[in-house]
Write a structure and sequence with these properties.
three-stranded antiparallel β-sheet, Mth169, Chain: A, alpha+beta, about 30% helix
Length: about 80
């Protein structure tokens, strides 16, 4: 049994309203040095055999909208 960890983000240039609201809230709390917040999704996928190809296939089949999102495989544990 293995596990893969994938992070999915909006592509650069895509509008991120949730990230903007979080940045505004942080500024109201006194964190004035923050210039940008981007929100993403983290997936932990358990597989019988965790391989880069299997995780990439899952991302491209369902987890990622390639028009507006990009992904990064953070870790593969076998």
């Amino acid at each position: 049994m293995g596990r893969g960890t994938v992070c999915v983000y909006l592509k650069e240039g895509m509008h991120d309203p949730e990230g903007e609201k979080i940045k505004e809230a942080l500024c109201l709390l006194g964190f004035n040095n923050i210039t940008k917040v981007r929100v993403g999704k983290l997936y932990q996928i358990e597989l019988e055999e965790a391989t880069s190809n299997a995780i990439t296939a899952a991302c491209e089949a369902l987890l990622v909208n390639p028009v507006i999102e990009r992904y990064e495989i953070l870790e593969i544990e076998e």
